[in-house]
């Protein structure tokens, strides 16, 4: 038996910032939209109940996984660290070509 909630979670992860519409999920899972909506509601509840760092967000017409607002300070540190790493890497590569 297919665990559709896990499949949805994976689809949402892969979709990233673009998210996935109810129609797209229904087409991919080969389920009625009402069934997919129930699965999305269940996923949303699971993410709320499980101390997850993620939540399910519905934008204008797409669902997407986002990090919870309570993690903002950690995400900012991570983003800064990634940015600093990229800048350092570029800086080293540029210095190879400078006299």
What is the strand and helix layout of this fold?
Elements: H1 4-15, E1 20-21, H2 22-29, H3 33-49, E2 54-58, E3 62-67, H4 72-95
Antiparallel strand pairs: 1-3, 2-3
Helix pairs in contact: 1-3, 2-3
Key phrases:
alpha+beta, elongated, about 100 residues, three-stranded antiparallel beta sheet
How does this model look, in words?
With 99 residues, the protein is an alpha+beta fold. The chain contains 4 helices and 3 strands; from the N terminus they run H-E-H-H-E-E-H. The protein has a 3-stranded antiparallel beta sheet with strand order 1-3-2. Helix 1 crosses helix 3 and helix 2 crosses helix 3. The longest helix is centred in the last third of the chain and has 24 residues. The termini are far apart. The model has no long low-confidence stretch (mean pLDDT 84).
């Amino acid at each position: 038996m297919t665990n559709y909630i896990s499949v949805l979670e994976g689809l949402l992860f892969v979709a990233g910032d673009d998210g996935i519409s109810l129609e797209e999920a229904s087409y991919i899972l080969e389920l009625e939209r009402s069934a997919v909506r129930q699965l999305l509601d269940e996923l949303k509840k699971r993410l709320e109940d499980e101390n997850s760092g993620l939540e399910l967000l519905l934008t204008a017409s797409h669902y997407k996984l986002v990090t919870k607002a309570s993690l903002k300070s950690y995400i900012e540190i991570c983003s800064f660290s990634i940015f600093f790493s990229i800048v350092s890497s570029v800086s080293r590569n540029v210095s190879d070509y400078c006299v």
